[in-house]
């Protein structure tokens, strides 16, 4: 097992990519804190059973982040892995984006990763090792129409990843990032019900299918395991070839 005796906090693990990652991590021997603002996180923890706890968490609130880290330390005594996965995506033309929508997207997708990292890094320094995986998006690498706040938050997360990787490499804290392409989850459900839009996404993806949550979970597993100890500050793009064209 790749994560035997490891402990992990996964944000947004009530659904989609986060949930698939939690289930995979559990199969690989990890003990897991499921942090989600939705009660769906409880179902993920129950499905895993032993060695998994749910805590209702809004990643954009420092107090919630404190409680999340505290639960991991109280239950497991250490924090080996942090997966900053919680995210939201809402679409508006830029010139019609309400300011509060911009703020909320940046606060969840970017500030949330900052707050959680800020909280766990001192523990990882004490432990002499740690892994942080940020879930960005190909929208952080290329432009997507009507997604100004989302693109900006995901591009910012890539920059934050590189910054943290450089700052904490000497502490043996690896910080990497994944840029998924179009993955079939609750986030994309509505878009993918639009047949024309789905077809356009399929045509933009050279690989002959769209992504599934498990495709990303395996990439997160690699960046969370000792197999990637010499990899830091990188963006692993898992998009079926979308950005290779
Ligand atoms: N689905 C895709 O095509 C795709 C592509 C690229 C990147 N991503 C990124 O992957 C990550 C996971 O997305 P997904 O597709 O699994 O979506 P999802 O909607 O299925 O899951 C997101 C989870 O995050 C939780 N969440 C949202 N805001 C939160 C907050 N403030 N605090 C705590 N939890 C919160 C939700 O409750 C949900 O459980 C996101 O960061 C998303 O931007 C998704």
Automatic annotation (TrEMBL):
Similarity comment: family membership: Belongs to the short-chain dehydrogenases/reductases (SDR) family.
SUPFAM superfamilies hit by this protein: NAD(P)-binding Rossmann-fold domains
GO molecular function: oxidoreductase activity, acting on the CH-OH group of donors, NAD or NADP as acceptor
One Pfam family named in its UniProt record: adh_short_C2
InterPro entries listed in its UniProt record: NAD(P)-bd_dom_sf, Sc_DH/Rdtase_CS, SDR_fam
Family annotation (PANTHER family): SHORT-CHAIN DEHYDROGENASES/REDUCTASES FAMILY MEMBER
UniProt name for this protein: Short-chain dehydrogenase
């Amino acid at each position: 097992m790749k994560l035997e005796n490891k402990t992990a906090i996964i944000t947004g693990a009530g659904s989609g990519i986060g949930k698939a990652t939690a289930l995979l991590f559990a199969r690989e021997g990890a003990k897991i804190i499921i942090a989600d603002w939705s009660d769906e996180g409880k179902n993920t923890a129950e499905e895993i059973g032993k060695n998994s706890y749910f805590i209702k968490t809004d990643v954009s609130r420092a107090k919630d982040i404190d409680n999340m880290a505290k639960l991991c330390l109280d239950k497991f005594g250490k924090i080996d892995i942090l997966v900053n996965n919680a995210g939201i995506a809402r679409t508006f033309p830029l010139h019609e984006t309400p300011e509060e929508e911009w703020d909320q997207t940046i606060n969840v997708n970017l500030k949330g990763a900052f707050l959680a990292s800020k909280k766990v890094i001192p523990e990882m320094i004490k432990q002499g090792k740690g892994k942080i995986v940020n879930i960005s998006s190909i929208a952080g690498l290329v432009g997507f129409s009507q997604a100004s706040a989302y693109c900006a938050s995901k591009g910012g997360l890539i920059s934050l990843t590189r910054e943290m990787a450089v700052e904490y490499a000497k502490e043996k804290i690896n910080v990497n990032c994944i840029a998924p392409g179009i993955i079939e989850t609750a986030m994309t459900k509505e878009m993918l019900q639009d047949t024309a839009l789905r077809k356009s996404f399929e045509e933009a993806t050279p690989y002959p299918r769209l992504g599934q949550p498990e495709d990303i979970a395996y990439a997160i597993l690699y960046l969370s395991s000792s197999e990637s100890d010499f990899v830091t500050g990188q963006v692993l793009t898992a998009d079926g070839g979308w950005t290779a064209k």
